[in-house]
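Lab notes, practical 5.
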Amino acid sequence: MALWCERGGPHHDAGHLPLLQRPIPEPGYPTVTPTARLSTQSIYYPTPVALLHLPPGMPESPSCQRRHTLPASEFRCLTPQDAAGVFEIEREAFISISGMCPLYLGEIQHFLTLCPELSLGWFQEGRLVAFIIGSLWDKARLTQESLVLHRPWGRMAHLHVLAVHRTFRQQGKGSILLWRYLDHLGGRLDVHQAVLMCEDALVPFYEKFGFYPVGPCAVTVGSLAFTELHCSLRRHTSLRRYSC
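Output from the prediction step:
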């Protein structure tokens, strides 16, 4: 989807990144029908530490007590169970301001079911603070269909939405997450490029991440026109290899 800035201009924190927006659906708005088989990915679930067997009445020593703290900071792919939290951030960031949203709840669930490996969430102490949702596309340029479809055989990752929770904006988290996401994509042999669409004012911002304009985008929203940007993932793969 188109990335566009609701406020703050091209130097605004990527946390409120700019995305194609569509009018709020009337009651009965249909959810997107999945068009591909479920993409699976092994997800790591931490194994609980077993409690020591102690005599009745004897407390555990502080060094052996079970810890209930969550990771201070964690990046992981999203799951359909994260969809409600994702939509809450979107609703505040977009709907409450413009009455439109990049992805609605049904579409979020759709993409997180078909291609969770093309998403990335940033969690702090178990709380979702920022996320990106993408899907695969199989044509050289974006079309209207690319907004709702996932093509498992595609070689291009289409970035639909990037958003940051309102209490964590203006901290550079959107930029950090975008770098992480491109590095994540660079580790996949089946994905060669990343693509997004944005308003002209945001082109310089995305150029800092290796994106380059390829011309006007075929997708329009009302009177709004967008520029399509591509990013080769080869450079990010090289950086990752040499940093090991």
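Observations recorded by the TA: The mean pLDDT is 77. Residues 220 and 237 are 32 Å apart (CA to CA).
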